[in-house]
Amino acid sequence: MTDIKGFCDPRFVAVRDALAALLDKDDIGASAAVFLDGEPVADLWGGYADADRSVAWERDTITGVNSTTKNMVALCALVLADRGELDLSAPVAVYWPEFAAAGKENVLVRHVLSHTAGLPDLPGLTAVEELYAWESVTEGLAARAPAWEPGTAAGYHALTFGYLVGEIVRRITGRDVGAFFAEEVAGPLGADFHIGLPAVHDHRVAPLVPPPSRTEEYAATAPLGPDGTRREDTGVAIRVKDANSVAWRRARIPAVNGYGNARSVALVQSVLANRGSAGGVRLLSAEGCEPAWQEVFRGDDRVLGTPMSWTNGFGRFGNAFGWGGWGGSLVVSDPGSRMTVAYVMNQMIDRDGRDDDRGMEIVTAAYGGLY
Prior knowledge:
Elements: E1 4-8, H1 13-25, E2 29-36, E3 39-47, E4 63-64, H2 70-82, H3 109-113, H4 134-143, H5 160-173, H6 177-189, E5 194-195, E6 219-220, E7 238-239, H7 240-243, H8 246-250, E8 258-260, H9 262-273, E9 277-278, E10 281-282, H10 286-289, E11 297-301, E12 306-310, E13 315-317, E14 320-324, E15 330-334, E16 339-345, H11 358-368
Antiparallel strand pairs: 1-3, 2-3, 2-16, 4-8, 5-8, 6-7, 9-10, 11-12, 13-14, 14-15, 15-16
């Protein structure tokens, strides 16, 4: 069995066993963490940071978590809302006047957070490098007409979520969402999570490893729609080689280019599960956390092709909420038990070819420690 490093409360030994089993089977390197009442009860890691299995995954190893980053961006919006600087029920155009173009004057902030704004795609882009041009992308979104009447349907905003929420944050604070997160969230908590990565951290990055039998040309593809066919003209394809590039690390693509490990992901999100504080640091009030699990939309998601419950920034699953990233990372928070569970790895799995239940195995093991 793979040697697992770190610690866990005896109640959560099943999490250690689950991580070890994953590393023995599918994973190359990975980390798992459980926070309860805003404090760590499991902080575990093991395996290797590279596909050749020559560099150990260490305590401070970080990797790209793709759409798990959306949880961090959503928290930034909730912090501003709790401070009275952002009204979730206000039109986006109150903060971003140009956004009112093309019939979007009634698009609300909560529509953007709940993937119901009608702007799920970035059609017309021909190169990943175009995603790095913040003003060009946000100006394009401001000029676009919604694909449906905002608020009446949902469609996962895979890339646009970060630009939309990020521009609202920038208009309010004068800071890009990565800087706001670093200064107002990660900094106070001491969390090793970054939206966009400074060069000083490059040596700690475990590159993402494409699924078995795939190469670094493996790309994120649009999911099958409700009719069983793939959606077309959704924007430029993102390959593993793009997500592993230095240019990607330096960019601001807030929906997808966050870097961290399970400890940092769980620490940040435990703020919401623990009614606004973690590790003795309060970021927002207990009431300010509630939009994270308050349902905004329930129904079939036009992009994901599956029934979804969306809150203000998160997917809702029963009494829990959170979201995961392309390849397998995941964070789930349960405000009823004040628990947050995170799983971060470098080995990707192709969901088109097989189910990826790795993160849920960690979550299930964590729930076993509660009873």
